[in-house]
Amino acid sequence: MIGKVLIANRGEIALRVIRACRELGVRSVAVYSTADADSLHRMLADEAICIGPPPASGSYLNVPAIISAAELTGADAIHPGYGFLAENARFAEICERVKLKFVGPDSRTIARMGDKAEARKVAEKAGVPVSPGSDGPCASVAEVRRVGGEIGYPLVIKASAGGGGKGMRVVHDEAEVEDAYLEAGREAAANFGNGSVYVEKYLERHRHVEVQVLADAAGTSVAFPERDCSIQRRYQKLIEESPAPGLPGEIREGLTSAATVLIDSLGYEGAGTVEFVYADGEFYFIEMNTRLQVEHPVTEMVSGVDLVAEQLKVASGERLEVPEGALLPQGHAIEFRINAEDPRRNFLPQAGPVEFYNPPGGPGVRVDSHLYAGYTVPPYYDSLLAKLIVHAADREAAIRRGARALDEFAISGLETTLALHLAVLEDEEFRRGGVSTSFLAERELRSEGGLLRLATAGAPSA
Amino acid sequence: MDETPQDETRQGPLPLEEVERLVDLVRESGVGEIRVRRGEVEITVKTRPEAPASQRDPGAGSQSVRESAAGPEEPSPELDGVHAVRSPLVGTFYRAPAPGEDPYVEVGDSVRAGETMCIVEAMKLMNEIPADVSGEVVEVLADNAAGVEYDQPLFYLRPQE
Fold first, then answer.
1. In whole angstroms, what separates CA A79 from the centre of its chain?
2. B78 lies in a domain?
3. Which of A47, A59, A68, A73 to mutate to test binding with chain B, by most B CBs within 10 Å of its CB?
4. Which of A123, A352, A361, B51 is 20 to 30 Å from the Cα of A204, by its Cα?
């Protein structure tokens, strides 16, 4: 087993990894920026090293500082969490070179799947359904028009190096191609240092479904029950659940077998997520994330498997041991991302002191968070404050439990997305299940007597 | 503490006569500390905390003059005007350019801003760490070959013009 793990991350995910280390008897090393001197991950890890100034470029993205911290503390592995360096193939390669075990797949696999145009080809070759689109990157406006002529509109232009909706444009007809192509390319270049884009058919009113996978070095792999992450705002997931509501059995099986086929073709090691779009009874591969995801706890709740512990075991060279029953979902789990954003003021990011903090408790409730009363949320990083995960016998009970727990959740000092989640749970279409990713875009947020309500655009106010 | 004036010619020589007068004043008045600021120059004269002027044994004689003035020969990091040179990166701290060689600096040495004080090695790269102000080395805070964090104090300097 790995003896000591350095966690190259902060916030709730750093705590998540520290907790798994504790339970496995693995020593943990936290790294932190000067802005995170009062953070829980610094306090709860066995050791902590300050690696740089507040901006992530000097600290959590500072490869030499992180490698030095690992060498100084004698860590033998690095867990990258999500975000920051988690899908940075160069970082993984440096870890390989200095004989630090990167908890994840090898650098070659990260690079291959990180190039989204290349990943489509890999999936296609493995026999995974891929939506119609360009064969690799598109080098000109004319090429996008040509592909548009073949596959029809709407289509979506995406950044090859992309993710999170950056460098992405939906195009409804040929007249929009030129502007969209140029904008997507510029945005991709600005965000990823690579302006290359590719084209896919855009499925209107699709759902986002994804499959959590886990594989060991010996080639054993498992695919867990699917997650549905269709509640998004500007391509950022807000609510995730498992299993996906109302999905036909053959689609379910199709998704897990497609994910398995893909990772087996890659010789994948570690945890990952294969993402699909689903509409009108068909699903298509969109991309693969070669890391742990924010929403991994919903899978943990319905499978009973500690995914982070499994990551660490697999990274230690141990064989995967997932009980057969874990691959059938037990009940229903929903995760709510509580962000430091003010939904009443166009999701304005919030920073500052947390005056009061009282997370919910009781049966079937899990909160993964780095908050405590008196903690100051720094303005430099991601807005995720907490993840509330509820688990119950079925979806209806999970929704009731979610509403109860959200109502109990008290954070004062800054505005959060708690009220938005309550509004989503009140929505009839959401309660029926199976909404598309345009769910939030199709609704307006209204403030009524201090509470938030969702109204379909154009509906009269109550 | 890094308020070293950039333009040294703007100031005159240290007003030593004035310092002497202040020392006398502290001793005679019995107050713990006198601070005088004139333009860029600030002078602080204080008695040792363990021997306040008002409580000193009058029989101590000639020693009392020295005790009453906190001079540079009695360094203490708690005193005002001591500057910490901090590590700009995570790595291993080395006092000398190579094993077996003399340290770059010793306590009591004067260093100029920009002069190398030590090495912090990270990923096999030897990073020479310069003094960010000119001054006298008062204390070496890290052990040779020890790991140091970002922003960790490595030396105390008493800034000098």
1. 16
2. no
3. A68
4. A123
